[in-house]
Design brief:
By secondary structure, this protein is α+β, with helices and mostly antiparallel strands. The protein contains 47 helices and 45 strands. The longest helix is centred in the first third of the chain and has 21 residues, at 338-358.
Length: 1260
């Protein structure tokens, strides 16, 4: 007969048949069951007296199998064995999930008994059963009495019932434990631990995960050991005697996982296997991703991106980073899922190996000057061929690297591109009689001032100038200026060459002063010493080598094609400027007396200790003295020649002494620590992730800054998931190695950081939400003051305007308040304590000052106190922090004339609020209205341009800060045309009185004013107006005079000035100065030729667009405009056809002017660039000459004037060609003109006939 333990075990193992019945003499089924169950916790049998159900009844035990479950809600009582009477609910079975235990053959967890529920449906008790088996091989050899003793002790300790049976054939023991969930679990562990043999499990894991398994200070491993009561021994790296891996090995990432360590676990069978499973879970999590490297050979590196594009697309789930040919890195990185990374890496290597066999190199001799024009990137992209330029300038061979089939195409493409450019060399060394030193300084000055860049831009060419280093080299005797252009741009080269020569010729040696008595060490201080003085005297300077060259302002020189050899005479004013700047350098000359040079004898091999990694040690030494006070040169004695075993120190005496001492200390440390210096520093583990930084950024920065190696001990490395280390006492060791000085400095910096971070704390204060607004203050004035004062962060619960509690990614900051009545303070512990104390003082003060005050308000002011929709009183409450409540009583208000409002808040808040209310009441009671009569002719004077005078009047009276509704009532002037002369002012009596007084003052001044007509040519009006009227307004403010300028569409040129006589006289002088002529050229054009020369005004637009030249006519602007707009004269009668003809051309001689007639002259004044105005003047002179030679007028008649568009051509191109070709003046009529059938032509008779032919050709 099977035992209950066997049945439940069989059911939970999905066995179809119960285990074979044990024989009557099977000692595994204990005959003394009564003894075995003495300590079983039995449930009370149902009072109904229902018989004990059969154990095979599915309805009684629904959790034991898959049979039909009873729908009855009545508990079904049953028992396992003689005393088991635990009730089982068929309607609500409960299951308990248990972890798999590889050591056990079977197990189960089955709910049993009844679970009473409270009103919310939650179970008060939960009883479960769990069955498991132990194989004979796993059981320890204990006697039967000891066996019962162990089980009884476990039952007593865990308050559970335990039943057991043993198979006669297999000796396998099956256990059934019943009790609460936690008790069952504990009982099972105790049974297995005491009844099984100790086991030892050994397995391997990747060596690189050793620290991850252990965790910081053992924080990961210790819970596993304690939970499963096992001993875990983690070995060191296997094959420790093997040769160390090369750091640059591309397979380091994968080798890290192939190198393993052994882990041995000792304990009971279940605990050991559970501990192993948990460790392997950590390993699986850590190894699911991989970062792998592939070393790129220099030969294939340029072509890797193109060749691997298909693989990159194929493995889109991976991050494959391929360096381009310009990158210093030669490592291809692959990161992502481990299996995909390994698979893609194999494919990448295959492609690269295949590509490597196809790459060849061909050398082509190309002139060095052409190297810069080779389109390296373009050819690599188009032909997959890399061009490598020689590193030696004397070598002309250029390498083409790529596949053979593409190299020929790449060479041809390179040839075509480079042949498009040419280089012309302009040697400046022959300028100024070959004064090489002077010319080098001039070249440096022109480069510094951007002159070469300006010439390059103007002529659309590239100019290459030797740099300062080359110009400072005394061994270089030529100054080649390279002019780079396309082959077709010869004229641009000539123009640029001419411009450079002119600029160089301007700067003669007598305009300079060379200073060579300033110590080289002090040259960096020249700028701060002389910049101000040099700017005052318009002096420029250049530092080349050990000399300073001062330059005065260059003098204008005529254009030249070659360098000038003529010396000019020095100007006295220039000499003064040079002298002043030279005198300013006396400060540096005096400082020279404090300089000292020291030469130390240090073997060359030891000087690396002074320099340190990437110069970090020397930088550290120099950082301890005044900036720019000392220079140190290794392998030098201060002379021009190199000295390998000496160190040169030069600078201010006191600082040189310090540097010398520090260098000697560094050298002494190097001798003392021949094998290298290292130091161990312990830092709190919880700040380690912050010290390391994202992707190691902070730690790498410290390494680079100090040139040291910083390693974090294995047991202290932070969890990759950045789990917070809550134990603040844990320490992590940092091993810092390098030069002793650098190590100690980095150590001190880390200690300072650790101290600052470790000292940070957060306190949480319980402060009722109702006081938060008062503690924050208006616009955060109080909380911000505390934050700034103590350098802490104070956070209040979420307000509509407070988003500081988040960290930017939707997560809540660790120091965010956790409730509406909580305030947090975070920062250094001392500062937090002080801020906390002050905040609590303020809180207590506000809490203890909830006072009330009753304020009486006149009924006529109550509406103003409340405001629209309560706006005013709510603003008062928000600003002062008070609460208010109106006590309205209509009957009482009618009797007393007052309403009451109750204010609640602190004494200060009540005082502020009552003051604000009193101000409103006072304003109502002091409100007045004053009306004065002002002649309408003065209304504009009171208003001013854009209301400027009105604003000034109100501002002077103190009303500019009033609200808009009050502001606009302060001064009301009738609109123009209303006929009213009544000016009204409403508001506070004191302000209104000042406004009225100011109005009377202005009117009195206006009555004393006079007017003056200032005539100024129309085109100069803009000089008086300025941008947005800025000049005009400034003049009116300065002189107190009204300036009335005609509008642009007004033909008047008269500017009307109104004001006091003496002020108008002063303004006239200012206007004369502002509007004086500034034109370059002036040409007098007789009025009779104006229309012809100006092409009826069209030429002015052409001159602006083509030459950027403006034409002005002074006081005759109106007459010139009138002449330009004159219509063509009426054709003579002979010009009209007498019969039906399509076209007719008539020439009429011009009539001679009477000798006595005085001809009006129209001045043409040209404004613009000097060169351009000269060109325009020449053009106008030619047109005037043509006009003077024109002795005839032609009239070309066409029956269909619409055909004249053919004569005009696109944008006038055709008619301009005819004019230029025939030297005639041609006017084509508009369709709206009176004589729209006639083209008007003026010129000589021969030219008119030529124009006729061209017109007829155009009309065909």
């Amino acid at each position: 007969m099977p035992t209950p333990a066997e049945i439940i075990a069989a059911r939970h193992n999905n066995d179809n048949q119960p285990p074979a019945s044990a024989s009557s003499n099977d000692d595994s089924y204990f005959s003394d069951n009564e003894e075995f169950n003495d300590v079983t916790t039995a449930a009370t049998t149902s009072s109904t007296g229902r018989s004990t159900p059969n154990i095979a009844d599915e309805s009684a035990f629904p959790a034991l199998g898959g049979g039909k479950k009873s729908t009855s809600t009545t508990p079904i009582l049953g028992s396992w064995g003689p005393t088991m009477k635990s009730p089982v609910s068929s309607s609500n079975p409960t299951t308990s999930k248990q972890h798999a235990t590889p050591a056990l053959k079977s197990k189960s967890s089955t709910p049993t008994g009844s679970s009473s529920t409270n009103g919310n449906g939650k179970s008060k008790t939960s009883t479960v059963q769990e069955a498991f088996s132990l194989d004979a091989d796993d059981q320890s050899n204990v006697s039967k009495p000891d066996f019962f003793k162990i089980l009884n002790n476990v039952k007593l300790e865990t308050n559970t019932t335990i039943e057991c049976t043993t198979s006669q054939h297999t000796k396998k023991r099956t256990f059934l434990i019943t009790g609460k969930v936690g008790d069952v679990t504990l009982a099972k562990r105790l049974v297995i631990r005491q009844l099984t043999k100790p086991v030892k499990i050994t397995f391997s894991v990747p060596a690189k995960l050793r620290s991850r398994i252990i965790g910081p200070q053992g924080s990961t491993l210790k819970p596993i050991i304690q939970t499963y009561d096992v001993k875990v021994d983690i070995g060191n790296l296997e094959n420790e005697d093997a040769e160390e891996d090369n750091d640059n090995d591309e397979d380091d990432d994968e080798d890290d996982l192939s190198k393993v360590i052994k882990i041995t676990i000792e304990g009971d069978v279940e605990g050991s296997k559970s501990a192993k499973a948990q460790i392997l879970a950590i390993v699986n999590e850590e190894t699911k991703n991989l970062v792998s490297k592939v070393k790129l050979d220099d030969t294939v590196k340029p072509f890797a991106q193109n060749s691997l594009s298909k693989i990159v697309a194929k493995y889109s789930n991976l991050d494959i980073s391929i360096p381009d040919y310009k990158s210093a890195s030669s490592t291809l990185l692959i990161s992502g899922a481990r299996d995909s990374v390994i698979e893609s890496k194999a494919e990448i290597k295959s492609v690269l190996d295949s590509l490597s066999s196809k790459i060849i190199t061909e050398e082509v001799a190309i002139p060095v000057l052409k190297h810069r024009f080779l389109p390296i990137d373009k050819i690599l992209q188009e032909h997959n061929v890399l061009i490598k330029l020689p590193t030696d300038d004397s070598n002309t061979n250029v390498k083409f690297v790529g596949e053979k089939a593409q190299i020929s195409l790449a060479k041809e493409s390179a040839r075509q591109t480079s042949s498009q450019f040419k280089i012309e060399i302009l040697d400046m060394s022959k300028a100024h009689k070959g004064n090489l030193k002077h010319v080098k300084a001039v070249a440096a000055l022109l480069d510094k001032n951007g002159v070469f860049a300006e010439i390059s831009k103007e002529n659309d060419i590239t100019i290459q100038v030797p740099d300062i280093k080359a110009l400072s080299d005394n061994s270089i005797v030529s100054i080649p200026i390279e002019l780079v252009t396309k082959n077709t741009d010869t004229e641009k080269t000539l123009s640029a060459r001419k411009a450079i020569v002119q600029k160089v010729n301007k700067i003669t040696p007598d305009q300079t002063k060379v200073i060579e008595d300033i110590d080289v060490f002090l040259l960096p201080k020249v700028s701060e010493t002389i910049d101000t003085v040099a700017k005052e005297h318009n002096i420029s300077y250049i530092i080349l080598g050990n000399s300073i060259t001062l330059f005065t302002e260059a003098k204008p020189e005529p254009a030249a094609d070659d360098f000038d050899f003529v010396e000019s005479t020095e100007d006295d004013d220039s000499s003064v400027g040079l002298t002043k700047v030279n005198e300013a350098l006396n400060k540096l000359r005096e400082l020279s007396s404090t300089l000292e040079s020291v030469v130390l004898s240090v073997p060359s091999k030891d000087q690396s200790q002074i320099s340190g990694v990437r110069g970090t040690t020397l930088k550290s030494i120099l950082s301890d003295v005044e900036p720019n006070s000392v220079i140190v040169k290794l392998h030098s004695n201060g002379l021009d020649s190199k000295s390998d075993d000496e160190v040169y120190i030069h600078g201010i005496k006191t600082e040189v002494k310090k540097v010398k001492h520090e260098i000697e200390t560094v050298l002494a440390d190097a001798i003392e620590h021949k094998d290298g210096y290292s130091s161990i520093l312990e830092v709190p583990s919880h700040i380690l992730s912050r010290l390391i930084g994202k992707n190691g950024a902070n730690l790498n920065s410290l390494r680079d800054e100090h040139g040291v190696k910083i390693d974090v001990s294995d047991d202290g490395k932070p969890d990759h998931k950045d789990e917070e280390i809550k134990d603040k006492t844990l320490k992590t060791s940092l091993i810092i190695a390098g030069i002793k000085r650098n190590v100690e400095q980095s150590k001190a910096e880390i200690q300072a950081l650790a101290k600052r971070w470790a000292d940070e704390t957060t306190v949480r204060l319980k402060i009722e939400n109702q006081y938060h607004r008062k503690l924050i203050g208006q616009n955060g004035i109080y909380s911000n003051r505390l934050q700034d004062k103590y350098n802490v962060k104070i956070r209040f619960p979420h307000l509509a305007s407070d988003k500081s509690t988040g960290n930017g990614n939707g997560n809540v900051s660790s120091d965010a308040p956790k409730g509406k009545d909580e305030v947090t303070i975070r920062g250094a512990s001392k500062n937090v304590a002080k801020a906390q104390e002050e905040l609590l003082e303020l809180y207590n003060y506000e809490k203890e000052n909830g006072f009330q005050q009753l304020v009486q308000i006149p009924t006529k002011a109550i509406a103003r106190v409340i405001g629209k929709a309560g706006e005013t009183i709510n603003d008062i409450a928000a600003d002062t922090g008070i609460e208010y409540k109106f006590k309205r009583d209509n009957e009482s208000e009618e009797k007393t004339g007052f309403a009451e409002v109750e204010l609640t808040g602190s004494r200060t808040a009540l005082k502020q609020a009552s003051k604000k209310i009193s101000e409103i009441i006072e304003e109502i009671e002091n409100f007045v209205t004053v009306k004065i009569n002002v002649d309408p002719k003065y209304h504009r004077d009171l208003i001013g341009q854009g209301g400027s005078v009105m604003k000034q009047i109100i501002a002077k009276a103190g009303g500019e800060d009033l609200p808009r509704n009050k502001y606009f009532k302060l001064l009301n002037i009738p609109n123009e045309g209303t006929g009213s002369d009544e000016v009204t002012s409403q508001g506070d009596k004191s302000i209104v009185d000042k406004i009225v007084a100011e109005i009377k003052k202005i009117i009195g001044q206006k009555e004393s004013e006079v007017s003056f007509d200032y005539e100024l040519s129309k085109e100069k009006h803009r000089l008086v107006v300025g941008s947005n009227g800025s000049i005009r307004h400034a003049l009116q403010d300065e002189f107190g005079v009204s300036i009335d300028i005609p509008r642009p569409n007004d033909s008047s040129s008269i500017i009307k000035l109104s004001g006091l006589p003496e002020k108008i006289d002063a303004l006239k002088v200012k206007l004369d100065e502002l509007t004086k002529d500034d034109w370059n050229e002036s040409i007098d054009i007789p009025a009779k030729y104006h229309a012809l020369v100006s092409e009826k005004g069209a030429i002015f637009k052409k001159l602006r667009s083509d030459y950027n030249v403006e034409v002005q006519h002074g006081t005759l602007t109106r007459q010139a405009a009138k002449l330009s707009n004159t219509s063509i004269p009426t054709p003579p009668e002979t010009a009209f056809p007498t019969e039906e003809v399509t076209t007719l051309f008539t020439i009429v001689p011009n009539s001679e002017e009477e000798a006595t007639t005085e001809e009006t002259i129209i001045p043409w004044r040209l404004k613009g660039d000097v060169k351009n105005t000269a060109k325009v003047a020449e053009l106008i002179e030619k047109r005037l000459k043509l006009a003077e030679e024109a002795n005839s007028t032609g009239w070309y008649y066409a029956k269909d004037p619409s055909t004249f568009s053919k004569v005009v051509g696109p944008q006038g191109s055709k008619i301009n060609q005819i004019r230029k070709k025939t030297n005639t003046f041609i006017t084509v009529p508009r369709s709206t003109d009176k004589h729209s059938n006639f083209i008007y032509v003026v010129g000589s008779e021969d030219n008119l006939n030529a124009a006729k032919k061209e017109i007829e050709i155009a009309l065909k």
